[in-house]
Design brief:
about 230 residues; two-stranded antiparallel ribbon
């Protein structure tokens, strides 16, 4: 069980850190204490956008290649989608099926575990912390403490300017507002009246948002906007 004094000490170390490396070192140390041998700290890209520039720490050895460290990851890797599944930290059991859809999971192998920490406090920015290993030692208290540390770390990284809360492909403020009103059941005519714009402009904002989110229709656009943290209800 984690010592509250130790957690407070780590939170203080994060608050006092003057470089991104020191902040990331605290996250990595906590993950390794829980049994993680593989570490990933990254922002999550918007649909059809690259992940380069969002990865902040990658210590992910490919066990298929004798433990050679991976030099990069694919923005479409299904392991990253774990960061969009829930809002709280959890442990994922990696199966053989997972390894066929994810190079990150294939690198660590089946019958392992991954602790997943979604970072959602810097709305609309989204990030993910992954720690993988043969066995992750983490109950509810440990996961809660890890959440506290990771979220504090990202707040500090933003303060230090290491992380920008703007991602390529983010919706504009007006696109978000149009989608929020759409999600509340407002028609294009309603939205045009509320925002004092034309219906044509409303439809243009919806089309632009749909393209950015790689969505197929209006409902899908709203769903993807919620999933990628672009709007909240």
């Amino acid at each position: 069980m984690a010592d509250p004094t130790e957690i407070q000490s780590k939170a203080a170390a994060i608050a006092e850190a003057q470089t991104g490396k020191h902040v990331l070192d605290v996250i990595e140390a906590q993950l390794r204490r829980m049994g993680a041998s593989h570490i990933l700290v990254t922002g999550l890209p918007m649909p059809n956008r690259p992940i380069e520039g969002l990865v902040h720490r990658l210590r992910w050895a490919d066990e298929r290649l004798g433990g050679i460290e991976r030099s990069g990851i694919d923005a479409e890797d299904s392991a990253l989608m774990l960061g969009l599944m829930r809002s709280r930290a959890f442990i994922w059991d990696v199966t053989a099926g997972d390894t066929t859809h994810s190079e990150l999971f294939a690198s660590i192998g089946a019958d392992t575990q991954v602790v997943v920490v979604p970072i959602t406090e810097a709305h609309p920015f989204q990030a993910l912390v992954l720690g993988g290993g043969e066995r992750i030692n983490g109950g509810k208290l440990e996961l809660s403490n890890l959440e506290l540390i990771c979220n504090a770390a990202f707040r500090r990284l933003i303060e230090l300017g290491v992380i920008s809360t703007q991602r390529p492909g983010d919706l504009s403020a007006r696109e978000r507002r149009v989608l929020e009103l759409t999600a509340l059941g407002k028609t294009a005519n309603d939205i045009a009246s509320l925002l004092e714009i034309s219906q044509r402009t409303v439809h243009a904002h919806l089309q632009n948002a749909s393209a950015k989110l790689n969505a197929s229709n209006k409902t899908h656009t709203v769903v993807e906007a919620l999933r990628y943290g672009q709007i909240r209800l």
